Amino acid sequence: NYNLWVTNYVLNFPFFGLLFMRYIYPQILDSVFIESLRHVDYVYLRKHEGENDLRPPYAPALERYEYSYDWMEMFQYLKRSFVYPIASAYTLVRSLGYKPAITVGVLMYITPGTKPLAIFILENLFSSRALMRELLEPYFGRIHFETKVRRRWFEEREGILFGFSIAFYQLVKLPLIGMLFYGVAQAAAALVLVKTTEPPPPPDLLSTYRIDYRYRDPREKKIHKE
């Protein structure tokens, strides 16, 4: 109805404009991300003051790379609906695997009244994943992975990224104030990046550096060092 249309589209127009702005003038959201990285580095150095074998600061390492984006990514953004994506069979299979996807499809088909719930769950699943990709764009706009490697990078961290993005997705959907929560999420994504990746090498060494897309639990790293 009319009220639902106003809530979903008109009141969320500032939020859509904020996302679109990333491809026209990305400096604002990029600055939020980098400043958050600096704060994470500051807290990390203070917390581990006097210790040896500390990781190098993340913000300066990432700032050495020039931020750039592919216009094709913008066209992909325009083609998709961020708030209500269509859960295609292909995407469902890629996300859950063949057997779980078939099970979900059969249950949706034979169980009365489950279709609205299934649509709601899938909507939140795919939208939260899209949100996480947007939040990490300041990183991937500098460190350009091949498509296959980038996909594996997300798969290795899928649990952590989903847990982070699903909570913020519910907040960024709120009319009018959703864009404020998006700014908070953009800053918080810097901490997620620091916890799940190592700082990149200097740009002149990137061609000879093999970026490891695999994820290792920080607790395991600490035990290994000890």
Automatic annotation (TrEMBL):
Task: Name its species.
Answer: Acaulospora morrowiae
Q: What is this protein called?
A: 12463_t:CDS:1
InterPro entries in UniProt:
CysZ/EI24
Keywords, A to Z, come to: Membrane, Transmembrane, Transmembrane helix
Q: Which Pfam families match?
A: EI24 (PF07264)
Report membrane topology. Multi-pass membrane protein
Q: Where are the transmembrane segments?
A: 6-25, 160-185
Localisation per UniProt entry:
Membrane
Keyword field contains Ribonucleoprotein: no
